[in-house]
Design a protein that fits this description.
4 copies of one chain form a homotetramer.
Chain A lengths: L3 E7 L8 H7 L7 E8 L8 H10 L8 E6 L8 E7 L3 E2 L5 E8 L11 H18 L6 E9 L3 H9 L9 H19 L5 H8 L10 E6 L6 E8 L6 E8 L5 H13 L3 E9 L6 E2 L2 E2 L10 H17 L5 E4 L10 E8 L6 E2 L1
Amino acid sequence: MSAVTLVVSPTDGPDDTAALGVLAELGYSAADLVAVIGKTEGNGCVNDFSRTLAAAAWEPRLPASAVTVFSGGTEGVLSPHVNLFVRDETRHEGFDRGLVAAAGRTRVLSPAELGRTAQVDAVTETVGKLVAELGVSTGDVHFVLVKCPLLTSAKIAALRAAGREPVSGDTYESMGRSRAASSLGIAVALGECDRAAALAALSGEAEVSSARASASAGAELDDCHVLVVAESTAAANPLRALHGELTDAIDLASVTALLDEVERQGGRVRQVFAKAEADPSGSVRGLRHTMLTDSDVNSTRHARAAVGGLLAALKGDGAVYVSGGAEHQGRSGGGSITVIYELPSRGGEAT
Amino acid sequence: MSAVTLVVSPTDGPDDTAALGVLAELGYSAADLVAVIGKTEGNGCVNDFSRTLAAAAWEPRLPASAVTVFSGGTEGVLSPHVNLFVRDETRHEGFDRGLVAAAGRTRVLSPAELGRTAQVDAVTETVGKLVAELGVSTGDVHFVLVKCPLLTSAKIAALRAAGREPVSGDTYESMGRSRAASSLGIAVALGECDRAAALAALSGEAEVSSARASASAGAELDDCHVLVVAESTAAANPLRALHGELTDAIDLASVTALLDEVERQGGRVRQVFAKAEADPSGSVRGLRHTMLTDSDVNSTRHARAAVGGLLAALKGDGAVYVSGGAEHQGRSGGGSITVIYELPSRGGEAT
Amino acid sequence: MSAVTLVVSPTDGPDDTAALGVLAELGYSAADLVAVIGKTEGNGCVNDFSRTLAAAAWEPRLPASAVTVFSGGTEGVLSPHVNLFVRDETRHEGFDRGLVAAAGRTRVLSPAELGRTAQVDAVTETVGKLVAELGVSTGDVHFVLVKCPLLTSAKIAALRAAGREPVSGDTYESMGRSRAASSLGIAVALGECDRAAALAALSGEAEVSSARASASAGAELDDCHVLVVAESTAAANPLRALHGELTDAIDLASVTALLDEVERQGGRVRQVFAKAEADPSGSVRGLRHTMLTDSDVNSTRHARAAVGGLLAALKGDGAVYVSGGAEHQGRSGGGSITVIYELPSRGGEAT
Amino acid sequence: MSAVTLVVSPTDGPDDTAALGVLAELGYSAADLVAVIGKTEGNGCVNDFSRTLAAAAWEPRLPASAVTVFSGGTEGVLSPHVNLFVRDETRHEGFDRGLVAAAGRTRVLSPAELGRTAQVDAVTETVGKLVAELGVSTGDVHFVLVKCPLLTSAKIAALRAAGREPVSGDTYESMGRSRAASSLGIAVALGECDRAAALAALSGEAEVSSARASASAGAELDDCHVLVVAESTAAANPLRALHGELTDAIDLASVTALLDEVERQGGRVRQVFAKAEADPSGSVRGLRHTMLTDSDVNSTRHARAAVGGLLAALKGDGAVYVSGGAEHQGRSGGGSITVIYELPSRGGEAT
């Protein structure tokens, strides 16, 4: 079993692991960690060493089964923090279901495979395995997070020296290609499309998206780190999840609908995980945006800042998880969104 | 008299003056313009030539009495547009008051005066003159917009060659100093503080702010352009204004309060003018932000993107006026905000 | 005839046309201008409004036959300036040849044509026409400068709405595609390759480059502006040109060889025109560079700064013309370079 | 004793410690390291986590006596690498002097002390101690490198909460203030000025500089790391050092003079250590530069790229150490420069 609780903790810097002390105060240890999902304060793009630094600080402290996902970029009011998914099998009285999570890794992907069918398949396989491990149906899954590799200049050069052409010769663009493949792998695993449709979408010939997929690319790994979060009747805890979709970057209504549902249930928002992107059409609701013509600041940075401004205001603080680049993660120009919330206590606890 | 209407029009680029065609279709001409207030798509900082380009395109087309204020930076979902304040003395039936506006310029400020007492005084004088011209009390004023100069390397070098020290040797910082002086000049003119308090605030020894002040600095001018917007019983039109204050960059409640009041009156939001800044304390509601340690993207850009994300979502489109750098414009870490809205028609029109 | 002299003049800003005063002092007028070739101080990328501003300031002052080429980006020690090619048919005593120049424009290129065969052909045609107009052989040509369009978000969206796919969906990348097509058009016109080879090179299947080509892309125009500079025995003036090739971005030897030849002839360097790029292999002389993995600063900015640092030191001042993005302009990782120099006077002047 | 050899090794990333393998092949171990001086590929400014990552990777592998100095920013053709100063007491036949080095740390500096007298004094003391340890006269010292702290938002906020005002409220500016204090501390220790002059210079009332000082600031430490490199007759090895001064960022002559001297001695350049800055006057040799008005790219990045372009071309590869921000390190607008070179072997070796 893998019932979990969620601990959200601010960080003083990418290498700040003080959240482990918070865990200890709550009676947990690092050995209980399923995943560390952090927002770090780099540029969130190719040369974001804040992610690598965070991974270097956290990974030696984690059990082999746990994964890290560090998403760079805390533009605007976003605040650097970590979200700890912590194994806690406590059965809370009055609850007949609860939040569960499982983490794993794909095999190492070669640079030639990045952004291509092999990556889609590897992610599909790992997500499928984790869903099975959780013993839930795909309908119970509310959030699948993937951290996947990108192509550096060195990897591109090595590929070309070997007579292979990478999916993109542009390092920044390779991030989007990698996110796309990961997200389509998630969509297949969750039954949102079949493999053929995913591969057609990968080559731009079909539109496929998953409102539960969240993918982020980085130079700090060679395989994909995967986290699946679901609700399960095998657990009994007050945490719940809802997912939805931003139809565009200013889609207040969709977020409000989710938050209203939490309120209707008497719940309290614990965290919001959202993807954001610059609408590839160049406009939002018919008005031109300039995120894709700004050669000084990449569009993923703009998108995080803007959607982060909205979500932080709605949540009431800046420690929200907003990640940039939403290829196949919610519809084009929008993004996937998952809210994790806590229902009020319904009595004492029973083991 | 100077009753005005407001035309908000998207632009295709900084030099796009197609809004003049929109004016013509509405029966106005360029000669009716009181002010052109635009968001242009540069970096909003020292070397933002989008502002200069917009001024070069618009100013030859305007009457001598009109002013331009181009605020650079359409980060995130913000959409480049112009807000035309157009003289329209039509007396609309059923209204006993209406929106009025007046525009003017201070004298040319020398680089040595920038950010200093002379600038405070010059702005105070011009704002005072415009308020008097409008024949309103300072309590009727809801918005005072100032575009003011900054210091370039060349100006700093010239000053130093003349044995004078500029208010700052850093070109980007000079923008903040100029905005500060302009805003304090507004505060004095509106009676929100006396001159002594303003000068103390200028030197960091007092806290003074105006929720109606909006100042923006640029290299494209040597004097200050000033626009005063008020309500007056001498006019009779359906436009109204409300002003408030963001207490911080995620202050949803203050914005909602303004929008609720508009709704209570049956009005329709026409435009939102807001200032935004990175909280100088380095945190928002106790959580660290990274806008002031990001050496790749200046903090004013971050602040516009974040607050723009919120306000665009609330307004429902990205053509909102969000300007970065809120020194003395609303409280520290927050910013001033003015909503211009339109009441429903109450009958036919009478000249 | 079109014998020319060259006036290099620093600028105070993109819209500074004070060089016209310099012209007047030298006895020329704006009507004598063949071309204004400037370095302006924007980012040199998609949203560089310094180029548009410069064009807006200069173009109304020029004869219809003249062209402007504004190349953005004065990173590092590069200094904003204009290079005026001025018609001057004076026959200087003691000279039996001299510098000549001709300028023209291609037809307007549609966004769908950008970066494709149509652009190659249009540039080939215009360069060919100008070479013929000069009455020189292609071997006498030392420098062909092209300013060509790029794709903005709006153009990309319009193309896609019409069911057409642009050469690139990335605005920054479209600049490189446009420079590539222009440069290959130059190579064909100069007889450095045939059209088939150029088209193969355009699609990445062949390597073609011209050491005399210099192409720069911008949003400020829809056609291509072309300038051809050659030596001709029909002119008699002390200006001469040499061209060469940087084999990489630190190729001191090739520059020194050109400068030594100038010195050997007793000449004085008047201007250096060079292209620069981040080596697409990711390394220079076997050592990794980071220009292609820097998501904060585009590689063309890095390349201009670095090569500008070298050439400015060699020339002795920062008013050199270094332009970024050297696709097919000199060999890969290097760039084309043309030196214009002046031989010592050989007596009086004769009309 | 502390005779040293120098190993220059390229890195694959900030956390690449493969140079330790190079050391091993040469018969050294990590225990022999005196200092690791690296160029890492971040932005070289406040939020440069490449430095922190490099320190995290290297410091656990070093003896307690060794220091690290990681200088961020490999703009343009600069190539990420490490310079290892390795203890090697071998007495090479035919040499009666050789390169020596000593490393140490100041006490921890409080944020309130940063950029102020206390920092000057602490650096003076540590440099003095290291010079004494080496047993050389200050005239034999050719290079003093200091890595010193900066102020983050958190440190500034903490200071202000305690009622103290930091030397600067701007995080980027704090780097310059810290470099200034360190460099003046070096100047005092080397006898280039007295303490009173240094303190006057610190407050802008005097001009003091050291052509042997190289200071770099970072968030990755709280004390100052110091390395002193000298020639000594107590050693006997083929390494030598020369120092000079760039009078401005395009001062080819000064560099050439140093390189010519190396050549005159039959030596081979092993490394060049230089500081660079944007001339604070806003111009270089009378021509305007735009490094101080570029709000997208900080001036230290521009300066590294430009001077790096020149020095890499002169050295013949990009693995040169160019660091940005040259306050009191060589004259204003220029920078200090030290060349380490190797004389030809003069026979066998004797222990």
